[in-house]
Amino acid sequence: MRASQFFVSTLKEAPSDAEIVSHKLMLRAGLIRKVAAGIYTYMPMGLRVIRKVENIVREEMDRAGALELTMPMVQPAELWQETGRWDKMGDELLRFKDRHERDFALQPTSEEVITDTARQELKSYRQLPKNFYQIQTKFRDERRPRFGVMRGREFTMKDAYSFDRDVDAAGRSYDAMYAAYCRIFDRMGLTYRAVAADTGAIGGDRSHEFQVIADTGEDAIVYCPQSDYAANIELAEALPLLASRAAPGADLVKTPTPGKATCADVAALLGVPLETTVKSLVLATDDVDEAGQPAGVTVWLLLVRGDHELNEVKAGKLEGLKNGFRFASEAEILEHFGCKPGYLGPIGLLKPVKVVADRTVANMADFICGANAEDFHYTGANWGRDLPEPDLVADIRNVVAGDPSPDGKGELAIQRGIEVGHVFYLGTKYSKAMNATFLDEDGRPKPFEMGCYGIGITRIPGAAIEQNHDERGIIWPDAIAPFQAVICPVGWGRSEAVRDTATALYEALRAAGIDAILDDRDERPGVMFADWELVGVPHRITIGDRGLKEGQVEYQGRRDAEATKLAVDGLAEAVLARLALR
Amino acid sequence: MRASQFFVSTLKEAPSDAEIVSHKLMLRAGLIRKVAAGIYTYMPMGLRVIRKVENIVREEMDRAGALELTMPMVQPAELWQETGRWDKMGDELLRFKDRHERDFALQPTSEEVITDTARQELKSYRQLPKNFYQIQTKFRDERRPRFGVMRGREFTMKDAYSFDRDVDAAGRSYDAMYAAYCRIFDRMGLTYRAVAADTGAIGGDRSHEFQVIADTGEDAIVYCPQSDYAANIELAEALPLLASRAAPGADLVKTPTPGKATCADVAALLGVPLETTVKSLVLATDDVDEAGQPAGVTVWLLLVRGDHELNEVKAGKLEGLKNGFRFASEAEILEHFGCKPGYLGPIGLLKPVKVVADRTVANMADFICGANAEDFHYTGANWGRDLPEPDLVADIRNVVAGDPSPDGKGELAIQRGIEVGHVFYLGTKYSKAMNATFLDEDGRPKPFEMGCYGIGITRIPGAAIEQNHDERGIIWPDAIAPFQAVICPVGWGRSEAVRDTATALYEALRAAGIDAILDDRDERPGVMFADWELVGVPHRITIGDRGLKEGQVEYQGRRDAEATKLAVDGLAEAVLARLALR
């Protein structure tokens, strides 16, 4: 491509509503332009990145035996009603009526449509396994679209759905997708981790997120540098930090802590480590009887160490909480604790409360907790002596860096990540809801064992930029750069030697299959360099009269601190060698 | 691709709601599956065709210097309100509200969004010309979606938009697109015509439809076999069939024609040629005064020869009718003609009526027309003698086969066609409405001269099938076939020789870049042949033990009546030679 024939549109400043670096750089480099909140046009420069991402995904999906199809963006309500998602999904599912007042939605994913296809098309076990995928526009009506392509409303997703005879076969489909995803993100040149994730109501251990590592990532991901353990924070298991409970060593004392409503403040006031305090969190469940009628409220007190955070996903898996919970109201707290939040604790309850202690809390002795009296905490509290043993001991906290790895092989570390892919075993959730069955070898109908596998195509450029940028702009990995190399001729308009050398190199790179751009705009070097460093082209060759007199041109990799000289003789080969190094 | 790894899903019968052959065959061949009215999933077999169509379009658009981008499917009302199309477009524009009650529409085309992009991005004449295109999902909420992909609601369109400095430059952009379209449809192997089309309010002569010729086409296209004249029926000029008006030769006679309300019936009753009769059509315009207030109704009588049809597009260009017209009500007809329809004519009107005669009618003498009295017609009517000269003489009829070509080079013929592309000069219609200007060389802001250029990507397979099919199924042109060649091994499961020969040929074709499928399903020959003839793969090689014993396999082109023998020695080369012939 010649730059004069292309559309290079860079901005000095990003619009003020761009909050994160990838959003700012994508706007400044002319990759995207905003059309409405969370809705963008992919400009020619941006679309080149998207197409390269799509092609890698497509090649690896095909290699893994998946079959591409395209489901509609506009989907009828009837299918979504079969699974109940028409009602269950929030406003993210954009619903509307057509001219005949029939209900439709814009696809956020396509489990319903593909399961409908499968129940019509896959009649026999002989047709299994099958894995269908599409690379197609999706829409989620986010309440607060932001971060550019990272949390947009209209986006492109690759979504795949596998159909298998049984759990074992579904496991093989899952493993094949896991392997394909590793190849995909390897080929894209991204630093990523596949981390175990929560499977929710589906159960089992087959759910992995593919997270691009970036300090600015929304997600916390947990790993063990000494082993291959990796999970997202929602799932990562927190072992007890105390192997056993020590004997009581202090008396229970009701201690004035005026105005100190947080563990940190109390610890500071008393001059003790935060690790000696216990934090109280009060939840409530609205119980129903066997007939499904309301049957009162159960109040829950969850206890984690003062320096720990409650993990709501883990709490949501506990017996009694797994059908849904909420934080207790102030009235419910007063009724059960006789005190307002900030000074709550497990000692001296007015009414029965289910007490759940985190594994570490359950082994603490002489701990500090709220006294259920405003401006007072207890010190020297001990299980069994000052209060009953907890009703339940469970892992209900987020791990923190330095915690022992659940596999016993070292200490956990935490990174930030951006989710770009997710592989998920669905079981028979959708096939049973939609009565999607096949005839098995024994002649009996069985529901498909399913899996679903997503990749956020339009999110990947954003994640790649969050991971790879500097103060001058984007630094693309070669495989997904809009152009692999840029040739910057200095004095294009006035020097035939520069034009000839630049054009010859351009043609040689093109002939070698390199996606190069020749900057024939006749701009000053400063303008060219600023543009291409902002756009993030990974390799630059600068050709000027001064160098040519000495038979030399300059090569500079986007991450290189300085340019290096290359001889004009054998120039194309030398440049190709540089490209091959990446 | 091996058939066992692919998804071949053919049906013996098409669903009963499939009306036309392409719809039936696309369903039977497993190319598409219906999700809702006018909304389809493109199954793997169908998507292969779509991808090949897209690739040809993309290559030729790129070759023509157009730049690909992707605009959003969900577009904000504000842009559509700027051009007035938010209100002017009918229910085809699917409008809805997002969760914040803001108005959006699904794109049917993208003039507004691209013009908005241009006014932000293209500031100087130095950046022109530019042509941006996208290949993207569109939605039109058709009242009655039908004919499968031919008139669906969700579809894929390639839409391009050119931006130029002036009319001449816009003409060059137009010509470049016209040439690209010819290359595109040539490469697809389709028989088509580029026909001049109406430009409506834009004016000028730069509007061409690309019509795939098929007897089942919705559109009538007019051409001259002796010249390069071609136009759609709406535009094709009808010359007068009588060079001048003969002198009156008969007396005006009010003739009883009881119950004969059509020209054909009257001519039959009287035993005269249909060409001696004149048909009366009554229109009305609702007039407004200078302040835009209603100012009564004007009634129009349009006269065409009895064997001709009124052309409403031509009528709509007449002074007085070009701001919109309707057919007159029965009350209006009675008021002006004193008679009900069927016996209307230009002689003896009760109230003033604007009389418009077709060019041919204006030169008729001794003609027959309604007498404005039930069950009576006049014979021997003559302009000037029996009634005043018409208020207006104009071309207001459709041409018919045998009419003289407007270029004077022969006689017109008529074919049926399916519109698959349209190139259109827009002028400044959108740029003025949206105040989209650039700074010209003289430092003054000027509105962009625009053109728009569409190709119905998902309609092309339907059109190709309407043009190319037989009683056994589809006959794809090589360039857009889902597979170029199929290898059918007879006895895959039992004969190693068959497997080896088939596999070797498959690998050789693949290595040569041929998109072949190896049918390793171990089906009987009849099943294989029926499937691949239905699917329409253009080349088939059948390999069986019997032939192999004589060192032979069978080749059959999809249009060939019989198979021909090919020697196993040099088989791949022989097959490649056959493929190259197409």
UniProtKB/TrEMBL annotation, chains A, B:
Catalysed conversion reaction: tRNA(Pro) + L-proline + ATP = L-prolyl-tRNA(Pro) + AMP + diphosphate
Main enzyme class: ligase
Its EC number(s): 6.1.1.15
First-listed, main subcellular location of the protein, grouped into a coarse class: cytoplasm
Keywords on record: Aminoacyl-tRNA synthetase, ATP-binding, Cytoplasm, Ligase, Nucleotide-binding, Protein biosynthesis
Domain Aminoacyl-transfer RNA synthetases class-II family profile residues, every copy: 33-477
One Pfam family here: HGTP_anticodon
GO MF annotations in UniProt: proline-tRNA ligase activity
Top-level taxon of the source organism: Bacteria
Keyword Coiled coil attributed: no
Compartments, record wording: Cytoplasm
Family: Belongs to the class-II aminoacyl-tRNA synthetase family. ProS type 1 subfamily.
Entry comment, domain topic: Consists of three domains: the N-terminal catalytic domain, the editing domain and the C-terminal anticodon-binding domain.
Self-association and partners: Homodimer.
Function: Catalyzes the attachment of proline to tRNA(Pro) in a two-step reaction: proline is first activated by ATP to form Pro-AMP and then transferred to the acceptor end of tRNA(Pro). As ProRS can inadvertently accommodate and process non-cognate amino acids such as alanine and cysteine, to avoid such errors it has two additional distinct editing activities against alanine. One activity is designated as 'pretransfer' editing and involves the tRNA(Pro)-independent hydrolysis of activated Ala-AMP.
Protein name: Proline--tRNA ligase
Protein species of origin: Thauera sedimentorum
Recorded name of the encoding gene: proS
